[in-house]
Amino acid sequence: MDIDIKERRAWVPHALWRRRKLILGAVLACILFFWLAPANLLDRMPVITGGASRAFVDAEIADLVSRIPGASPGVTVSHQPNDAHVPRNGEFYPTKDELRILFLEHARIPNYNLDESIWPSWLPWLEGQAQRPKYAHYDYLTELRNLPNGDIRDVRQFLEKPVFWRVRHGRALGLTVFSKSYCPYSRQAKSLLHGKNAKFTVIEADLRPDYETLHRLIIALYSHRTFPGVIAEVSLIGGYDSLVRLDEDGHLDSILRGVGAFNA
């Protein structure tokens, strides 16, 4: 049967035109959405980052970052509140000390495996082989909230009163000893501290399934390669030899007292 040419020409363009209108409408809607959207909208949308980074930003954390002045990295504010605890002002975070705090908090959680955490995706950055991940601040804030004693109030304090936050978390950490169970220097360091009746947290690196990652993080965050590694709050004291020198010079007791290692 012959097909009427005029009928075919009238029907095909009409269907194509309807399809084109739908596509053009969708494209224009996307263009208008991103053109008219607030400047900080993209920072509040779900994001996908590399490695073990989470696929979505926590909505409550994203809301805090968008509402607290100076909490968005790279976005400064012209007028700071008249407060003794000056909030952030667009600085990039986490800083090295803030990373150390989170690392020490994670390392002392029973059965916490660093290999199955955010840290492997951060290692190239911490070791100087890659740039800071774009969403490292969101990841860090989420990790803070997920700590055993973490909550959104701690995240808020981190953003609004970072100096106070660092002091509070540092004091809670006290004295930490990264040790190897078979290492004679580790044993001597622990024996010296026990002899002073000091309180400290021991992390036996060689008995952990995540030893390699743990060791790399100690090197990246503290530039300390050997065991033991003795840390007062977030600052490295050193190894066994450093403890002995400080003790001989009469400084070790004051350091231990300063980090709350002596019972009141």
Automatic annotation (TrEMBL):
UniProt superkingdom: Eukaryota
Keyword Membrane applies: yes
Keyword terms of this UniProt record: Membrane, Transmembrane, Transmembrane helix
Gene Ontology molecular function: glutathione disulfide oxidoreductase activity
Transmembrane is among the record's keywords: yes
GO CC aspect terms: cytoplasm; nucleus
Transmembrane portions of the chain: 21-38
Domain Glutaredoxin residues, every copy: 176-231
Gene Ontology biological process terms, A to Z: cellular response to oxidative stress
SUPFAM superfamilies named in the record: Thioredoxin-like
InterPro entries in alphabetical order: Glutaredoxin (IPR002109), Glutaredoxin_subgr (IPR014025), Thioredoxin-like_sf (IPR036249)
Alphabetized Gene3D superfamilies for the sequence: Glutaredoxin
PANTHER family per the UniProt record, alphabetical: GLUTAREDOXIN 2, GLUTAREDOXIN-1-RELATED
Protein name: Glutaredoxin domain-containing protein
Species of the source: Malassezia cuniculi
